[in-house]
């Protein structure tokens, strides 16, 4: 009699990623096929309004639902990193845990291309496509 075959199951801490797997056991080597139903390297979703009235409060949002562990978010304006520190006179606040960038009162200088980057510490950071925010005077 031969040795019993050992089949070990593993799981990733990403319960929202469906996939199917089939295992064919032969006398020599098992054959494993994994079929993913979606990409794991999906970009985060970003919500940037197209326009905002000067003086109005504006909120930009970023979310990476597939991030495990939870992502830390950064925002870029015209490809320059915005500081998450609460700088006096910055005119905005950024929460790196929720991905929210808030402006109390936007002005013409806040117009530009905004994008968010999500980093979970595993793999390369992921970015959404830059979106333009236009300020109407």
TrEMBL record:
Please, which domain of life does this record's source organism belong to? Eukaryota
Give a single Pfam family match: Ig_3
Q: Name the SMART domains on file.
A: IG, IGc2
Question: One GO term of the cellular component aspect?
Answer: plasma membrane
Which Gene3D superfamilies is this protein grouped with? Immunoglobulins
Question: Could you tell me which PROSITE patterns the record lists for this protein?
Answer: IG_LIKE (PS50835)
The Ig-like domain extends over: 30-129
* Protein's GO biological process: leukocyte cell-cell adhesion
InterPro entries in alphabetical order: Ig-like_dom (IPR007110), Ig-like_dom_sf (IPR036179), Ig-like_fold (IPR013783), Ig_sub (IPR003599), Ig_sub2 (IPR003598), JAM2 (IPR042625)
Record-linked PANTHER family? JUNCTIONAL ADHESION MOLECULE 2 PRECURSOR, JUNCTIONAL ADHESION MOLECULE B
What is the designated name of this protein?
A: Ig-like domain-containing protein
């Amino acid at each position: 009699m031969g040795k019993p075959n050992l089949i070990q199951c593993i799981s990733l801490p990403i319960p929202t990623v469906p996939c199917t797997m089939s295992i064919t056991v032969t006398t020599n080597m098992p054959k494993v096929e994994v079929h993913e139903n979606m990409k794991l390297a999906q970009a985060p979703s970003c919500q940037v309004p197209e326009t905002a009235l000067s003086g109005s409060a504006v909120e930009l949002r970023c979310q990476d639902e597939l991030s495990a562990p939870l992502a830390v978010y950064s925002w870029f304006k015209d490809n320059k990193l915005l500081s998450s520190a609460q700088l006096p006179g910055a005119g905005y606040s950024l929460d790196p845990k929720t991905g929210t960038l808030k402006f109390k009162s936007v002005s013409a200088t806040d117009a530009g291309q905004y994008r968010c980057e999500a980093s979970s510490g595993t793999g390369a950071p992921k970015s959404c496509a830059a979106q333009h925010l236009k300020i109407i005077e």
